[in-house]
Every structure is written in structure tokens, then in C-alpha cells.
Amino acid sequence: MKKWLLIGVAFVVIVIIVLVIGISNLGPMIKTAVNTYGPKMTKTEVHLGDVDVSIFSAEAQLQDFYLGNPKGFKSPDAIKVGSIYVNVDEGSITGETIIIDKIEVVGPQITYEKARRTDNFKSILNNIEEAVGTGERSKKQAVVQRKESKERPTRSRDCSANRDVRSCFTGHVKNVTKPGGVVEMS
Question: Which residue stretches of the chain have pLDDT < 70?
């Protein structure tokens, strides 16, 4: 009887140790995944400098994100961001709708470029769909309560001509994906 109790306790301790190690290495695992699989999926240069994740407070901080442009576009980069901070409502993680309390983007530089009857972002999205397939999508939704851009995004050549480029603003966007929600820019 004592032998089985010791084995049970040892098993629980091992599981706890594995969970603690897994949680403490979550940031480096995300960074490695983005830097490894990002270029393969997007067929562009992708780099993420650092990731800090706090499971208990449902926060993440990403540093130095870079997404290059696909071949055939003049600009070398599509997106450069100094840092991205995300705070999620912990109670919503297991539900059908994930509530993102805040997304803060610092130092975004976004280049929208047209070439050959397409644009750089459509080309990147097509590359991702080609890599992952177009199978059944998740039914989970995300609701963004507040988005902040701390510095004015860089305007691209086509930004002023295309009025639907949402990266051409400074300020806050609220309730982006709520049913019936209104995009507020200030």
C-alpha cells in the first residue's frame, strides 16, 4: 500500500515539475515556433525578438516583430513592430469567445504595396493558406475591447490612396469584432 502511495505522489510531483517547466519556457517556445515556422508559412522573412508570457495574468509581450514582403514587391518589409502587449480576460480563455481586454502596439511600421493585380498582404495570406490548407476553421471568436497604437504607423505609398487601410491611424480602436460593434478611431 505504501509503495503505491509513493508512486502516486512521485507521479504528481513529476507532473507538477513538467507543468512548471513548460509554463516557464512558453515564451521561448513561441519565439522558436514563430522564427522557425513563420518563414515557411508566409514564404517571407519572419523574425520575433523576444516573447514574455504570463499564464496567471493572461498577458503576453512580444518584442521586435518583423514580417518581410514576398518576392516581387519593392519594399523589403511588410510589417515592423517594436513591441506588442496583449492582455486577455482570463475567464474567457476556455469559452467560445475570447475577450482581449487590450492590445497595445508600439512603433508599428506597415507597408501596403500593390503589384501584379494583388497586394503584399493578400500574397502573404495566400501563402499561409497554401501552407496550412483551407480545412474547417475554429468556431472560436475573439473580441478586442481596446487597441492602442503608441506611435503613428508609417504611411506607405498606397496608404493615402486606399481609404480602407486600417493601419493609417494614430489612436484607439474599440470593439473591433463585437457583433454590431462600431470601429472608433481617434
Answer: 1, 22-24, 134-140, 147-186
CB atoms within 10 A of CB 97: 13
Cell readout for 95 is 469559452
Q: Residue 87 to residues 30, 57, 73, 146: CA-CA distances in angstroms?
A: 16, 8, 34, 10
Phi, then psi, of 138 in degrees rounded to 5 = -65, 145
Q: For the chain, which residues make up each domain, given as ranges?
A: 2-131+139-144
Q: What is the pLDDT of residues 74-88, one digit of tens each?
A: 889 999 999 999 998
Q: What tens digit of pLDDT does each residue of 142-178 get?
A: 777 776 666 655 544 444 344 444 444 434 444 444 4
Write out the three cell numbers for 102.
Answer: 487590450
Query: What is d(CA 183, CA 150) in angstroms, rounded to the nearest whole number?
Result: 18
C-alpha of 128 from chain center: 14
Residue 163, C-alpha cell as written in the block: 481609404
**pTM higher than 0.85:** no
Query: What DSSP assignment string belongs to 104-121?
Result: EEES-EE---EETTEEHH
Angle 95-129-52 from CA coordinates, rounded to 5°? 50
Cell of 148: 492602442
